[in-house]
User: What shape does this take?
Amino acid sequence: MVSVALVRLARPEDLGKIARLAGELVRLHHRFDAKRFMLIDNVEAGYEWFFRRELANREVVILAAELDGEVIGYAYGRLEPRDWNALLDAHGAVHDVFVDPGARKRGVGRELMTAILGALCDRGARTIVLSTATHNTEAQRLFESVGFRHTMVEMTREVE
Assistant: This one.
């Protein structure tokens, strides 16, 4: 299905809506596994502050997907340095991709992924990684369809 959304670099005036979408993403993960994924009060305000700061970073990409003047999705990625703990050389990382549930199944997620991968490559990334919740099989299918492969499995154990 072809997206009808415009995918573009996020602007400061988009950040309130993007932060609300990020809050939905946090809540989704929290519903998947409340012991693993934190949920803090007023998470949207924290995201808006964080994303506002990130907009000034040349190694960061924040994209907005817009339909009829409304932000319906976003993607957030950045260039990351070599990480000895993860055995990763310098790389691009896609940290967030989220489309409003009412706007899904239109190709918006694919457009966001294509655009953020291109933007990270344009900034010099030769490897791009992402993490996805085990239960988020829909997102995993999207990521696989744009060329990602499974490389790691995170495991969590609470100590009581």
Notes: The first strand starts at residue 6 and ends at 9.
